[in-house]
Amino acid sequence: MRSQTLWEARKYEEAFGKAISLQERPGFHLSPRTGWMNDPNGFSWHDGKYHMFYQYHPYDSHWGPMHWGHAVSTDLLHWEYLPAALAPDEIYDRDGCFSGSAITLPDGRQLLMYTGVVKERQANGGYNEVQAQCLAVGDGVDYVKYDKNPVLDEKDIPEGGSRFDFRDPKMWREEDGTYRCIIGNRPADGSGQILLFESPDGYAWHYKKVLAANHNRFGKMWECPDFFPLDGKWVLLTSPQDMLPSGFEYHNGNGTLCLIGAYDREAEEFTEETDQSIDYGIDFYAPQTVLTPDGRRVMIGWMQNWDTCNHRRTHDEAWFGQMSLPRELSIKNGRLYQTPVRELEEMRRDRVSYQGVTVSGTVRLEGVRGRRVDMEVTVRPEEGCDLYRKFAIRLAQNDLYHTSLSFRPGESVLKVDRKFSGSRRAIIHQRRSKVSHRGGELKLRIILDRFSVEAFVNDGEQVLSAVLYTDQEADGISFLADGTVNIDVVKYDLV
User: Any catalytic annotation for residue 493?
Assistant: First the structure.
């Protein structure tokens, strides 16, 4: 191996990763081998396996000089760790190997494209990060950085674009064998734009045009873009920084944005038609997608938020950060829908079912509990009763703690609330979303996995995600109603 820095990272993660037991990790959400994890990178299908790389600081459970961690899976749920793929060990990436993507070349090798970072001292004595795009190529385990790196830098950015905010390349291969990639950039107006680049071979890249521009509509800088066709439309995903709320659609801080529209491939023009959040919960950022061999578009995001990184299990934990459940994407009624990847159903065991249960006050159902759970709940008004005022499900519950999902049909608002989950930090613990319902009838599918909850609303019309660090012994589930409701519940353990 050529890189001493990478060799040291690999030896460290091999030794310290063994010290983390399976019971200390999520059951089926990818977490770092050891240390810190943030954005998914290089989510791809290569040589018969799904590859997930990730922003990684192996030496500490806090953010630090970025490496690329690496894991593979055959079902998107059970992951095998491979050695770290990249380390900051060259003059052009000495301060970090930041986010990027991966594709398989015609010769069978895997090509990685990532953002290399170099800190530059400024006139005021501070530092800014100069960002450029770099390549590495390998066999699915070991990668060699391209000797002509960086392949895109400040000279390739359109006039007014910032060399300090030029990152997160997402590549794809066109039907004619040429390559494209999009990269997030900050233009002169201080907001965000997505730049389109092209290449004949994946190695020599040049600027094409601005694919989409923010114009200060949705936050500021647009990070981690992804662009793909889906159900007759084209979808642009990105993660805007410094957003302002817009009703219940977008929230303060770092958020997510889905733009659905039309794409003229000849002119390479993207026309926006609709916009929406990707996830309406607390913890979700920087998603990336892959096209599966059977033609599904599957998305995974970092199930965390930069504004909630002080929400931790302990002060000295061995790992921090996890990926979301893989989600199959579709477009229905002009909206992005997300459903848990169908492979999850193969993990279901011990079915418990209740139909037509009347709830007024608090109800617990025999056999409905756990912290690795797939549960479907349909709530509706009880026949002959007035519309209920509130319905709630309490999860990860014991005498001290719980996290709740609550729905108020009069306001059409669903809220996730973890303020009683055991956290001692005054960070974001609640988030609300407008949801659709039919006369008070709402359908939820709730996935619990030790340290998280993801609630899929109305067969995937919306999703709310949140990290939970409640003690694992808190595994109760209860149902509450202000008024009278009628519910159906189907619950599985996930093993």
Answer: no
Task: Report CA-CA distances (Å) from 16 to 33, 61, 63.
Answer: 8, 12, 17
The H or E element that residue 484 is part of is strand 476-494
Average pLDDT on 311-339 reads 94
Question: At which residue do the structure tokens 């049909």 appear?
Answer: 409
Cα gap 452→281, rounded to integer Å: 11
Q: What is the pLDDT of residues 1-23, one digit of tens each?
A: 579 999 999 999 999 999 999 99
Per residue in 141-176, pLDDT tens? 999 999 999 999 999 999 999 999 999 999 999 999
Report which of 105, 99, 322 is spatially closest to residue 202, judged by C-alpha positions.
105
Rounded CA-CA distance 132/136 in Å is 14
Position 449 pLDDT exceeds 60: yes
Return the DSSP state at 250: B
Q: Which two tokens stand for residue 246?
A: 């817009």
Task: Report d(CA 119, CA 169) in Å as an integer.
Answer: 19
Spatial separation of the C-alpha atoms in residues 380 and 442, rounded to whole Å:
7
* Residue 313: per-residue pLDDT: 81
pLDDT at 350: 98
Catalytic residue among 39, 93, 226, 374: 39
